[in-house]
Write a structure and sequence with these properties.
six-stranded mixed sheet, about 290 residues, 11 helices, alpha/beta
């Protein structure tokens, strides 16, 4: 427990690296994976690999954590001796998780909770969670945390691409025309989260390798805005490029102080499919 007794909570959609979460007691509330034969808690009852294995039979849907699960997580933090909490969520533009946490938190008694909307997703949102941990451990006062983390969120950029647009179409993230044109021409859009925290296309590339190169180029350009940055890369086992891309980041971004490598949670892979590579960049806190 940190000296300020401030709990850090998040949802599974932020993809905080498991070793970091364990080392700093980051508490996660699971999004739900819904199949015709039942509902599973992301990362608890079902793994990313299991979701991928079941794609041939069914593409599931996802839903936000239940208010009861959010309440239990906050109650547990309070029972364990924490006196306040910061709950960092995936983008409100992509999920109602943030508003649900806000509602539950507003009814907590004698346990103040600040809820932070990252306006992002995946490892980029996880980087905001990690920033929250560092701020708390460095003694940033509770009343300043939300504002500082919103600033960090605004400066954190994520880029990702997928090999098969079918899953984004299935989840309603892209329209039918975009799917058909992209599939026909082998176009691989590079997506990012815009100011409202919604998916938007920043570039369309002809082929997978060009899309990955474009992602890296966007991260490199964004990194030039700051004295020091932290970068991140995430992917699934089906498209394992972690070490390769991390090495490229270290070699080509002179002001990078750390590169985070992350997997992808089951709830995110539902909407992107098994072949996803994401990259992110954030100004370093120190």
């Amino acid at each position: 427990m940190n000296d300020q007794r401030i709990a850090i909570l998040t949802d599974t959609g932020t993809n905080v690296p498991a070793d970091f979460a364990a080392a700093h007691d980051v508490r996660q509330v699971a999004l739900a994976i819904n199949y015709s034969d039942g509902t599973f808690r992301s990362g608890v009852d079902i793994t990313t690999d299991e979701v991928i294995d079941r794609f041939a039979q069914e593409i599931p849907t996802t839903s936000l954590p239940s208010p009861d699960d959010i309440q239990k997580a906050l109650d547990a933090a309070q029972a364990d001796g924490y006196e306040r909490a910061v709950f960092v969520t995936i983008s409100s533009g992509l999920s109602a998780t943030n508003s649900t946490v806000e509602l539950v938190a507003s009814h907590m008694e004698n346990f103040p909770v600040e809820v932070v909307d990252t306006k992002s997703i995946g490892v980029a949102a996880g980087m905001v969670v990690m920033a929250a941990v560092r701020m708390v451990e460095e003694g940033v006062p509770f009343e300043h945390l939300k504002g500082k983390l919103e600033e960090v969120s605004a400066d954190t950029r994520v880029y990702f691409t997928v090999k098969d647009l079918m899953y984004l179409r299935h989840g309603g993230r892209i329209n039918e025309a975009t799917y058909r044109l992209g599939s026909m021409l082998n176009l691989k859009p590079v997506f990012f989260c815009d100011a409202e925290g919604k998916y938007a296309t920043v570039k369309k590339c002809r082929g997978w390798d060009k899309a990955l190169a474009a992602e890296l180029a966007f991260v490199q350009e964004e990194a030039k805005k700051y004295a020091k940055v932290v970068c991140a890369v995430c992917c699934t086992k089906a498209e394992d490029r972690l070490d390769e891309i991390a090495a490229k980041m270290r070699a080509t971004i002179p002001n990078v102080v750390d590169v985070i490598e992350s997997g992808i949670s089951p709830d995110l892979i539902v909407h992107t499919g098994p072949n996803l590579v994401g990259m992110a960049v954030q100004p370093a806190l120190n």
